[in-house]
Amino acid sequence: MYTHLVVYTRIKGVALAYHLATSNEDAQKFDRAVERLNQNTEVTGSDHAIHILGTDSPSFTSIQNMDPYFADVKEVTDLAEFFSYFDELVAARSQLSDSTRKS
């Protein structure tokens, strides 16, 4: 049995999900990822949902087969890459805010 951490968000019209699968024996890896997420995903105006699911396979496809809600979601397995999408969102909002103030 594998436990999956899936953090779903939609940024710029693209559905993304950070995905981490661990065997039940590797709970520390899971806990570390949750801790990093709690520290780094507070972006004003961004919504994300944390899902914890169980399947017999470590693949993201096993989640998509279990729940079609995730069928069109882009899987991101690197937490730093996942955070970079939030950084891009913050930068875009900052530029928009700056250009609105200059008008």
Account of the protein in words:
The structure is a single chain. With 103 residues, the chain is an alpha+beta fold. Strands 3-1-2-4 form a 4-stranded mixed beta sheet. The model has no long low-confidence stretch (mean pLDDT 80).
The number of domains is 1
Radius of gyration, in Å, reads 16 Å
Largest sheet: 4 strands, mixed
* Helix and strand element order: EEHEHEH
Helical fraction equals 40-55%
Strand order of the largest sheet: 3-1-2-4
Average pLDDT for all residues? 80
β-strand percent reads: 25-35%
Shape: flat
Oligomer: single chain
Instruction: Specify the number of helices.
Output: 3
Structural class by helix and strand composition: alpha+beta
Write the SSE topology.
Blueprint: E1 2-11, E2 14-23, H1 27-40, E3 48-55, H2 60-66, E4 74-76, H3 79-102
Parallel strand pairs: 2-4
Antiparallel strand pairs: 1-2, 1-3
In short:
The chain is of the alpha+beta class.
Keywords:
3 helices, flat, 30% strand, single chain, four-stranded mixed beta sheet, alpha+beta, 103 residues
